[in-house]
Amino acid sequence: MPASPPSRWGDRGLAWLFVWIWGSGYLATKTGLHYAAPFTFLALRFALAAACLVPVLIVVRPRWPRAPREWVHLIVAGLLMHAVQLGGSHYGQYWGISAGIVALLFSAQPLLTAIIASRWLGERLVARQWAGVGIGLAGVGLVVWHKIDVHAMSPRSLAAVCVGLGGITAGTLYQRVFCRNADLYSGAFIQLAVASLVLAPLAYGIDGAHIDWSWQLAAALAYLVILGSIVAVNTLHTLMRRGQATRVTSLLYLPPIIAVALEYAVFDVVPSGLSLVGVGITCLGVALVALARPHP
Asked: What is this structure's pTM?
């Protein structure tokens, strides 16, 4: 996909598109895991996403990686972003860890990104941005507090989610540094295809590749394949190319708010007063990170 000149309003539109898809994806994933085990579900999802990109590749004819190291960088970033991140989070949820703990742990990504970016990528954050990172994390904790169940958390499920957190943090930064000029169409195809191939043996060896086919599973897969694996991930990569890493990843504080809103709209689950307070605090934290002017 050719790079387009950055547009302030265009980037804002992309940001809200990403937040909406990422947040609503929690419900689609929850539905899908009722009908397929985690590695089977993901291997199928990534294979279908790669297949959906084939007609696009034929029409667009994008640039493919030329040097072997370009292929290696794309594959490493893709495995971290797709296989490790989602494999860890889905496996943890499958073994009983609550959605609240998953959301809270994954909301530590902006903090980890801020630390890594300021230490090794040369990004200088102002005090207001550091405050925003902390406030946003506290806000997410309040939003999902009613879903946190430590009794349903096993060491195995907690370890899996922490691995997933490491995957998305390392993957987004790795893609930003080493795959900055990669074509998004061919890059997405390579990453999805490789992630599917890597997860397929786990699907057969651990899950038994068992699937209960239903229209609910088909709907969840359709949503996650098109919007989650293709649109949302490439939107995140586009924003990371254009903006400060910490500023972009602070958007990941917002998807739990979308999930709470959709639960109310679809399942009539009324958010608690604490959750509503958390929504306001989270938005304040994101605003502090996004609107502050970083050091040059």
From this structure: 0.86
